[in-house]
Amino acid sequence: MKNIAVFYVAVLIPIPLIIYLFSFDNLLLAFYALALYALAYRPVIDYLRLLSKGVSKEPFWKLYIPLFRVKYFRELYM
Q1: 4-21: buried (b, 16+ CB within 10 Å) or exposed (e) per residue?
Q2: How many angstroms separate the CA atoms of 37 and 18, rounded?
Q3: Could you identify which of 13, 17, 22, 68 might form a hypothetical disulfide with 30, taking C-beta atoms 3.0 to 4.6 angstroms apart as the criterion?
Q4: pLDDT, tens only, 6-53
Q5: Dist. CA 61–CA 70, nearest whole Å
Q6: Is 49 exposed, middle or buried (0-12, 13-18, 19+ CB in 10 A)?
Q7: How far apart are CA 70 and CA 27, in angstroms?
Q8: Using CA atoms, how far apart are residues 46 and 69, in angstroms rounded to an integer?
Q9: pLDDT at 57
Q10: SS3 sequence, the chain?
Q11: Number of other residues whose CB lies within 10 A of the CB of residue 53
Q12: Are 17 and 33 in contact (CB under 8 A)?
């Protein structure tokens, strides 16, 4: 995932689905989807990007530490 466009597409594709789920009466499903995105999907995508760029030798679980990804902001988003 060295290409920045592929990374942004992978990050942004689930967002419209989550917004769509919030339009239903069952908000619990939407909150589950949001939690799944934030706690499972997004750290995996960020870790794969860092691995493909050869930046991170950190253990995967460290991406769950709040604000740990700020350390790799330039490598992830630029």
Answers
A1: eeebeebbeebeeebeeb
A2: 9
A3: 22
A4: 999 999 999 999 999 999 888 999 999 999 999 999 999 999 999 999
A5: 15
A6: buried
A7: 30
A8: 8
A9: 76
A10: CCCHHHHHHHHHCHHHHHHHHHCCCCHHHHHHHHHHHHHHHHHHHHHHHHHHHCCCCCCHHHHHCCCHHHHHHHHHHC
A11: 14
A12: yes
Cα 59 to the chain's mean position, in Å?
16
Count the residues in the chain.
78
Tokens 């794969």 found at: 48
Predicted local distance difference test score (pLDDT) of residue 68? 85
Amino acid, res. 13: I
Q: Which of 63, 40, 38 lies closest to 50, judged by CA?
A: 63
Number of neighbours of residue 39 by Cβ within 10 angstroms: 10
Q: Which amino acid is at 73?
A: F
